[in-house]
Amino acid sequence: MENEKVKSSRRKFLKSAATLAGATIGYTWLKSSQFLLYGAEPEDKTLPWYGIVIDIEKCIGCGSCAKACKLENDVPKEPFFFRNWVEQYTVKNDGSVIIVSPNGGMDGFEQTVPDAETFKSFFVPKMCNHCAKSPCIQVCPVGATYDSPEGVVLVDEKYCIGCRYCVQACPYGCRFIHPVKKVANKCTLCYHRLKKNLAPACMEVCPTGARMYGNLRDKHSELVKFLKEHTTQVLRPHLNTGSKLYYNALSSEVR
Amino acid sequence: MEPHHYQHLYDILTHAQGYIFPNEIDLQWGILIVVYPFITGLVAGAFILASLERVFKVKVLKPTYQIALLTALSFLLVATMPLISHLSQPQRAYEILITPHSTSAMAIFGFVYLWYLMVVLLLEIWFDYRPSMVVWSNEKKGVMRLVYRILTLGVNDVSPRALKWDRKLGYIITVVGIPSAFILHGYVGFIFGSIKANPWWSTPLMPIIFLFSAMVSGIALVMLVYMIISYFRKTVIDLNVLDTIGKYLFFVLILDFTLEGLDQIQRIYEAEESFEIIKLLVSGKLYLTLFVAQGLVGTLIPLITLAFLQFYKHKIKVRKSMYLIVSILVLIGVYSMRWNVVIGGQLFSKSFSGFTSFKLGLIGLDGSLMAAFWLILPIGILTFLLWLLPPWKMVPEEE
């Protein structure tokens, strides 16, 4: 009788110990690996958490940003590789939309649609959206692309295996395979400049101040002030990428 | 890099239609990524056919059991090669195994693959062949004796008790193997189906469609291999075997066709923001490979033929040639399906406003010769395996 009791309590103890151990291991594993779901969270609260604003109303389509980006970041000059480019949208009176970006807008634009046929026309600069829930980071099989503590999406060139899955996963077409380095390449928000308190090259050269970056966590920053005073929108909100690139005056034709 | 390195991109640029993002001119996944799911599908399909015999005791299919297993192994050994040779940093491929990123669908593939190869396929074949290998190691002389000795891994016990255990363990592995084969290929579908940026790929049905098309292609391949082996060995093709495989092929093909049809109907009816560009894609650049190669040649003609063969039981020679043609057509159809998914999904811009074009090169790591090599290599491996482990020379099993 005594023996049975001892056995049963021992069994109970072992059972609960095993459950506890399993739960702990399971929890740590899930926590550390963010299993399946990816979402960047600002870890170090003392660091800035960067966001970007592009004001479409201010963009004149000069292409300086695209040019500056190629120069600053050593992007191949051929028209197939861009970290930053400008699109020209022309909505015609019949409702059709013409989109062009010759050489990424680096050489400026020419309007081929006559004024009489034009309903409206505008420029949309494009760059990495530095998403908080980046599909590109989610799919990278080795973790070569990652979020910096400031929320900037970066690529470790020494680690990338060149599988191109991230290029497929980016809904905005912001990634490419560097033809010489043979690894994924993309906008770094000029991380090397940010670290020296310098503005990204595209923002430095923009003659109209159509681009702005800033700390989303600092409620008094210029960026947050702008977001408060304007109705902004991200690209493809339904994809839930957590984009941190906010457009002011974004027209519904833009994708 | 010299300007001529970019010549092909300039050529594509002149063929682009509408607006595409500038980074999209260079199409990322070429023919090797078409070959990869095709090969993986053959593996899963062949294995599932083998399991039918074993688990569901379809005795008629006995002559194809080992053939199906060895076919699955031959293709599985090559399955990762197109992937690795497609990487732009292939020397870093091992990183996927040692530092896998848990949220990446691709990262887990290495483990699913290894599980399937090491735990399922190799073990099942080993348990099945062990008694025969023991006998062969005693019969043969010289090098071959040593080879079979090594292959038995020193387990030479052929007592009835040991043989019973072989069968029992082999059976358990087959039972584990069926869901594994489902996972292996359903998983390949998930690699595409989970990309929300691409509306041509992003559908929850993708893993299931991949799975059923895998079964279709694997079953057709085993049927073809069985006929070819019989031809070379100058043995009579057992029509019962063809009829039974044909019946399974018929049913799975119906399921596959229905699933893919449902997927398209859903797309057409919902007509989301990508609908216009996809409509242009299927009626333009994919017309030949989707409607003609996959739909007509690979699905409808085989379906009608197989339906006809269900009740047409006359001229044996005619039926044999019909099965031969059906198996080839089905393989062409499934290959086209992989093409339509992989290449088709990259032809339209994610701006949904234009198309890039794909020019298939002949030479180079991503050329059609390389793709052909990865498709022919498994056939070479299979020939070798059939020579090393001939199913027709196996020691008959005592029931």
Topology of helices and strands:
The complex is a heterodimer of chains A (255) and B (399).
Chain A (H helix, E strand, L loop, with lengths): L1 H32 L16 E6 L8 H10 L10 E9 L4 E4 L17 E10 L7 H5 L5 E3 L5 E3 L9 H5 L6 E2 L6 E2 L5 H4 L6 H5 L5 E5 L6 H8 L2 E2 L11 E4 L7
Parallel strand pairs in A: 1-11
Antiparallel strand pairs in A: 1-9, 2-3, 2-4, 5-6, 7-8, 10-11
Chain B lengths: L6 H9 L1 E2 L12 H25 L6 H18 L1 H6 L8 H4 L6 H35 L2 H10 L8 H34 L12 H28 L5 H32 L4 H9 L3 H25 L4 H27 L1 H4 L6 E2 L12 H21 L11
> What fold name stands as the CATH topology of the largest domain in chain A?
Alpha-Beta Plaits
Largest sheet of chain A: 4 strands, mixed
Low-confidence runs of chain B = none
**Fraction of residues in helix of chain A:** 25-40%
Largest sheet of chain B: 2 strands, antiparallel
- Whole-number mean pLDDT of chain A: 91
How far apart are the first and last residues' alpha carbons of chain B, in Å? 68 Å
Q: How many DSSP H or I helices of chain B?
A: 15
Could you tell me the strand content of chain A as a percent range?
15-25%
State the order of secondary-structure elements of chain A, H for helix, E for strand: HEHEEEHEEHEEHHEHEE
Q: Write down the overall geometry of chain B.
A: globular
How much of the sequence lies in strands of chain B comes to: under 5%
CATH architecture of the largest domain in chain A: 2-Layer Sandwich
